[in-house]
């Protein structure tokens, strides 16, 4: 991924039925238990005793995104002790801004290295707290989640060109009358959960705007969304300056989050399936330049291939992608995508 202020980092979610959320299409999902053993393997690799998730592909840093993913997986794995360690570290170390949002980046040698928030990390944490409140009947988690959701609404939900949109962070994403947005920050099942809270009407509008933007943000021969995009006052979308002009590590999560929320319309998944099948389902490039379409020589990770397999299934392309097993040293981000893709596939009744 790329940080809210442009510093490099690589760029969720849990199957909605597995975590008890309603599907976007009634009856589209079925409940599927998460493999607790899979969570334990994940925790052994990436969860430290103090409660932070380590990004092994990014110099061992920790960030709000990783804490949110870890908290969601801990709930799905039924591990309340681990969840409390994760939430405790997040509160003690990252919640230092004073506005209810979470500082996004922490380094082992310097502590909090960027106090700006990353809105997807805040959303993941709040959603995990809501799931924990439901799973373990603990109202304190729900209260904490509601406070983060309120802070997000106050700080990063804005109106532009008749749409309610999400700033990727509180600071740094207004360029005159143009906003810089990240399509993969639309975590649709989390947004649905927030919309169900008291006063959540704007979150429902945010979900609608996400679908509008995804229909507009289709670039190049594959019609892919960019990792970072712009939206001007007239409603025109573009590929953002100041970031790599590409589809890649961030935007690969777009089909994953749609699947999490129960979407099955092939329209949403066809661009990603087209990319995967073009390269035979196994040699898919990690990034595609936009709008030109030049592909990188770096191959998609195992976790990215898991997302493409899911997208191909939902686009009607069948078993076009073969996903190899995770390597013993598979990094944090790839492993996380693989876990989340498996959960999404299970909840949709699709073989992962």
**Could you give the distance between the termini?**
24 Å
Strand composition percent:
5-15%
Largest sheet: 4 strands, antiparallel
Secondary structure tally, helices: 11
- How many β-strands, per DSSP? 11
CATH topology of the largest domain: Glycosyltransferase
Q: Based on helices, strands and strand pairing, what is the structural class?
A: alpha+beta
Helix content: 40-55%
Number of domains: 3
Tell me which CATH architecture of the largest domain applies here. Answer: Alpha/alpha barrel
Radius of gyration: 18 Å
What best-fitting shape do the alpha-carbon axes yield? globular
Walkthrough of the structure:
With 352 residues, the chain is an alpha+beta fold. The protein has three domains: 1-28, no CATH class; 31-155, Glycosyltransferase, CATH 1.50.10; 157-352, Glycosyltransferase (Alpha/alpha barrel), CATH 1.50.10.10. Helix content is 43%, strand content 11%. The chain contains eleven helices and eleven strands. It has helices spanning 36-46, 64-76, 80-94, 119-136, 139-155, 188-195, 201-216, 253-260, 266-278, 302-315, 332-348; strands at 62-63, 103-107, 111-117, 157-160, 163-166, 174-175, 178-181, 229-231, 237-239, 246-247, 288-289. A four-stranded antiparallel beta sheet has the order 6-7-8-9, with no helix packed on it. Strand 4 and strand 5 form a beta hairpin. Helix 9 packs across helix 10 (302-315) and helix 10 (302-315) packs parallel to helix 11. It is globular and about 45 Å long. The two termini are 24 Å apart.
Brief write-up:
By secondary structure, the chain is α+β, with helices and mostly antiparallel strands. The protein has helices at residues 36-46, 64-76, 80-94, 119-136, 139-155, 188-195, 201-216, 253-260, 266-278, 302-315, 332-348, and strands at 62-63, 103-107, 111-117, 157-160, 163-166, 174-175, 178-181, 229-231, 237-239, 246-247, 288-289.
